[in-house]
Amino acid sequence: MPNPGPVSSAPADRDLIAQAAGGDERAIGQLYDRYATVLYTVAYRISGQRADAEEVVIESFAQAWRDAARFEPGRGSVAGWLTMIARSRALDLVRARSRRERITQTAAADLLDAPLAMGTWRGDPADALDRTERRRQVRAALDDLSPPQRQAIELAFFEGLSQSEIAARLNEPLGTVKTRVRLGMQKLRSALRPFFFEQGP
Amino acid sequence: MSTPDESSVRDLAAAYALGALSPEETRAFETYLATSPEARQEVAELRETAALLALSAPNAEPAPGLRARVLEAVSQSKLRPLSPSPTAPPPPVGATRRASPILWAALAASLLAAVGLGLRAGRLADELARRRADLAERDSTIAEQARTLAAQGQRLATTDSTLASLLSPGVQLVQLTANGDPDPQIQLFWDRRHNTAVLHASKLRPVPAGRTYQLWFIKDGKPVPSVTFDVAPAGEALVPQVTVPSEGAISAAAVTEEPAGGSPQPTTPVLLVGTLARS
User: Fold this and answer.
1) Of A32, A77, A139, which has the smallest distance from its Cβ to B67's Cβ?
2) Between helices A174-192 and A125-143, what is the axis angle to 10°?
3) Residue B123: per-residue pLDDT
């Protein structure tokens, strides 16, 4: 089963998860080198704060480590699994924060966070190339959607809104929002299938 | 809510992959998912698609130190069972006595579990600050209650001594009344052995601002100034400690209205009066 990303000698993501499930911490280090940027990017996009994004990345890999034995290959790629863990942890964190109405403090923290961390990339250069190409494809596919389709999907993914909440936010009928989400996601799937983190079995 | 038919349930796959279904829809869809391998395959693909959306966000690189923190977290959580087991192994005998590394590691692991619950240090600090503010508020409430309690204690002590005065042997009751008006009354509990009295007033008309009531003893036919007192809106007053002149012939007690602070001589007509008889 080919893993299209890394160079051919590198272990597949699934092998790394199996090693992690067997108690090998180095496997998590390798997964970090491959996907930390993706996890950090989505966590930062959702939380808007560097410290929160870092916490999310730590928690996500810790969860992956604990849950490695329960990973189900049939449900998708390791990278997709890790990304969705980070996304939902970041959303949880933002929800907890807004529940406590720390709006002023958030604004203050944002000022402190203003310069983005630009760390040195220590992963495999082949990974970086692969990621750049994939990123370009994802953005192109999103650009191909109608703006309302793209908006509905982005509100669901980055803000964790349900379809009803999106409809309320946009003041649109629920049915309209559902159609946008469904057709938009189908179109994205067709465009991005060749660029999935891992190809299906 | 009616059960959605299969085609409409199938339409939920994209929103399910995005986590955008209502709880009811999620349950309905997962029921359907359990019965359909095709649907599971579709959801897997849509979930892959959704995960790729992460790459549309502006690229942000984690700080270089984050890798070490991740590995540290993983290393610490190694102490936790990898797969859920019903019972954790008991700590080695004697481990606690030596404050062993295992104990510290377990402590670190439990701290890490706190991290796992999503409480990062900053939020803990927020929480702490909030609790401290709460505590300070409670402290000031308690201090205020303590002051109230001290004041009440003081009042109770006064009441006790007042009661003691009233109950001591040889106390004589003197009634002061107004001429032609049955309502205002003053009772003077006169302790002749100690030359003290307790004054209790009822149904006295409140005086205007800058004015006060004043008690006088008539000694040798002349008024001797005593305490001034004000009445509550209901017309009540209690003066627990009134000194009665010890020498000379006291024939009566009287009350007038005077400027605040009292006067050396009455400046207005007597409002209430009562006779005292030293026997």
Assistant:
1) A32
2) 140
3) 63
